[in-house]
């Protein structure tokens, strides 16, 4: 088996869960009792650390916590220090980096040394939502296993099993926004975006000359939505617009594509920029309206 693999696919399709299950099988030794994979000494997982000491305390208490934006070079160096020793329970060790496309540039360069000269019995599983962000030298030393998006009926079965309390409207919104990712669909269900989905479809179908629907959209989003909700609403609007791309109407196509591009840009900014939530709501509503109405441009 090749020593390094990129597990590639959109976020939320199960790459991380697969990596941990595969790691547990790789380190398993016949006749040797195995601890829980989450605490296995021969499975090293590098992911986003808490952002600061306060967030570390939240993590220790089992509360939601903010994380650092990147996987740091210090994490790579600590992992490499462990690779200088033999595996604890058997002959194999697995390093999981999740997500590998969050590695800093210096972290990538440091990791490259381990991929070029891997210790005997060591395997690397690199979870990548955007494999193109990895250095070409890293990609060239790995084999790629691709995870395809799931069909809508499969995601609907998952939603019914994992979130039976969700309404039909909420599931419909989650399916529209998830685009094949069950993890994303479950996140959207948690945000309860069914009413917002209906309003977005109305704006696209009817326009909003009097700003009435945009006002309702802002009210439904809420006066003080957190970043996660703002990002979810923006992603839902982007998915709804993408599904509405008309055939044959070149002028409408241009408006839809322009609005989609602006929503992609806004979605990339929302996790880090401190925008006024009311203005974000109106911007999203305006972009939806611009895709529906020839006479109205985005603000």
TrEMBL record:
GO BP terms: DNA-templated DNA replication
Coiled coil spans: none
Signal peptide: none
Name of this protein: DNA polymerase III subunit delta
Naturally occurring in which organism (per UniProt): Novosphingobium arvoryzae
Organism placement in taxonomy: Bacteria, Pseudomonadati, Pseudomonadota, Alphaproteobacteria, Sphingomonadales
């Amino acid at each position: 088996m090749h020593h390094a693999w990129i597990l590639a696919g959109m976020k939320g399709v199960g790459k991380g869960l697969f990596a941990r299950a595969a790691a547990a099988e790789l380190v398993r030794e016949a006749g040797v009792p195995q601890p829980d994979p989450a605490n296995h000494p021969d499975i090293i997982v590098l992911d986003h650390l808490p952002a600061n000491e306060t967030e570390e305390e939240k993590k220790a208490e089992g509360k939601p916590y903010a994380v650092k934006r990147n996987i740091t070079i210090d994490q790579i160096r600590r992992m490499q220090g462990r690779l200088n020793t033999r595996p604890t329970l058997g002959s194999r060790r697995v390093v999981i980096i999740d997500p590998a496309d969050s590695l800093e540039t210096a972290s990538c360069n440091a990791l490259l040394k381990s991929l070029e000269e891997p210790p005997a019995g060591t395997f690397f599983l690199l979870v990548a939502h955007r494999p193109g962000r990895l250095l070409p030298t890293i990609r060239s030393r790995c084999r790629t296993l691709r995870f395809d998006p799931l069909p809508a009926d499969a995601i609907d079965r998952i939603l019914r099993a994992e979130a039976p309390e969700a309404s039909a409207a909420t599931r419909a919104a989650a399916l529209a926004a998830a685009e094949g990712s069950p993890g994303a669909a479950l996140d959207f269900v948690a945000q309860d975006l069914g009413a917002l989905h209906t309003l977005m479809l109305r704006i696209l179908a009817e326009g909003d000359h009097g700003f009435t629907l945009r006002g309702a959209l802002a009210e439904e989003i809420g006066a003080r939505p957190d970043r996660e909700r703002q990002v979810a609403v923006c992603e839902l609007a982007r998915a709804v617009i993408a599904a509405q791309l008309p055939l044959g109407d070149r002028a409408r196509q241009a408006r839809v594509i322009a609005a989609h591009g602006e929503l992609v840009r806004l979605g990339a900014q929302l996790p880090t920029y401190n925008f006024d939530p009311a203005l974000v709501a109106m911007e999203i509503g305006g972009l939806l309206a611009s895709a529906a109405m020839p006479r109205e441009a985005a603000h």
